[in-house]
Design a protein that fits this description.
Pfam families: Aldose_epim. InterPro entries: Aldose_1/G6P_1-epimerase, Gal_mutarotase_sf_dom, GH-type_carb-bd, YihR-like. This is Aldose epimerase. This protein is mainly beta. The chain has a single domain, classed as Beta-galactosidase, Chain A, domain 5 (Distorted Sandwich). Helices cover 1% and strands 48% of the residues. It is built from one helix and 29 strands. It has one helix at 297-300; strands at residues 8-15, 18-25, 31-36, 39-40, 58-59, 65-67, 70-73, 76-79, 89-91, 101-106, 109-116, 126-135, 138-147, 153-155, 158-159, 162-163, 174-177, 179-185, 191-196, 208-209, 216-222, 240-246, 252-257, 263-267, 272-276, 279-283, 286-291, 305-307, 312-322. A hairpin with a 2-residue loop joins strand 7 and strand 8 (76-79).
């Protein structure tokens, strides 16, 4: 049977903590599975299913939402397809249903490529790649975008992994988010401001049990004080522990990012589809979405990268584990 997410790239590596396995899909260059010594570290889904709630997909050339699918370029209104019709937004970029082609592959890594072609609402030509590589302490992901068109192109990047720790109920995991600000939104999940998390229910810097919170919220100032005032950075080192989940026994799984990862979206759906011994059911999951910009960045300009013709941009993030010793 042919998979609805295309070819499945199996990555395998022997690590000090046991065998690591990842499965990356041809469609959306998505992370369908990542496990360590047989313990799942991301929510998975069946080979014959589409990614539920965007699980594992690459978000390019923008993450999150664009209000009404409208923005301006050179004084001309651009109209994107409303891919979140219930809220009248364009969401999660232009490659979530696109097939990627394989450029390089080893037993423990794969590099996939896809082109963003000029289209309604986004009149730019971009070459993109994403590389997944298993390491001793996790899974590293490297994105590259190159503007191969003739005009300056606005770009932001993100990803949509759902973290877990094997059979530990997600409700019992403690979520920690290293963000100083909360992206305040309207009833359509579009930004209306940015405020300090200090003293609010959005202050997750010391950690909170996931079962006690309900989020579909963006955060800024990841490792900094504000997502609005950061200088341009080019470093690709994984310098920031963006967010993590920790089990009662101390095991943890974290998202790390380079200096380009300035924002994170945390989403805790109660209706994520699972397969159990008695059949399918809906339950709690937690998405931790590393992003280079907040929602509606094409309009606000916050965190937006503007690539000149011929210019390339590289962004790195990783899933890292701790406390899983054999």
């Amino acid at each position: 049977m042919r998979s609805v997410t295309g070819f499945q790239y199996d990555l395998r590596a022997a690590t000090p903590n046991g065998p690591a396995l990842a499965i990356v899909t041809e469609v959306a260059a998505g992370l369908r599975l990542y496990s360590l010594n047989g313990i799942d570290l991301v929510e998975t889904f069946a080979v014959d299913a589409t990614p539920p709630w965007g699980a594992g997909i690459v978000l390019a050339p923008w993450p999150n939402r664009i209000r009404d699918g409208l923005w301006q370029h050179g004084g001309i209104v651009q109209r994107l397809a409303l891919t979140e019709p219930e809220l009248s937004n364009a969401i999660h970029g232009l490659l979530r249903y696109s097939p990627y082609r394989m450029l390089e592959r080893s037993p423990s890594s794969v590099t996939l490529a896809a082109t963003v072609f000029p289209q309604g609402g986004y009149p730019f030509l971009l070459d993109t790649t994403v590389r997944y590589a298993l390491t001793d302490d996790g899974l590293e992901v490297t994105h590259m975008v190159r503007n191969v068109g003739r005009e300056t192109a606005p770009v932001a990047l993100g990803a949509h992994p759902y973290l877990k720790i094997g059979g530990v109920p997600t409700a019992d995991l403690v979520l920690t988010v290293a963000a100083h600000t909360h992206i305040d939104v309207d009833d359509r999940q579009n930004p209306v401001g940015e405020s300090s998390v200090a003293g609010t229910r959005f202050d997750l810097r010391q950690g909170r049990r996931i079962g006690d919170i309900d989020l579909d919220d963006g955060f800024g100032g990841v490792g900094h004080e504000s997502s609005e005032v950061l200088p341009e950075v080019s470093g690709e080192e994984l310098v920031t522990r963006v967010a993590s989940v920790t089990a009662p026994d101390g095991r943890s799984v974290a998202i790390w990012g380079d200096r380009n990862i300035r924002n994170v979206q945390v989403f805790t759906p109660r209706n994520f589809p699972f397969e159990g011994p008695d059949g399918p059911f809906l339950g709690l999951a937690v998405a931790i979405e590393p992003m280079t910009a907040p929602a509606d960045a094409f309009n606000s300009g916050a965190g937006l990268r503007r690539l000149e013709p011929g210019e390339s941009w590289t962004v790195r993030w990783a899933i890292r584990h701790a406390g899983f010793g054999l």
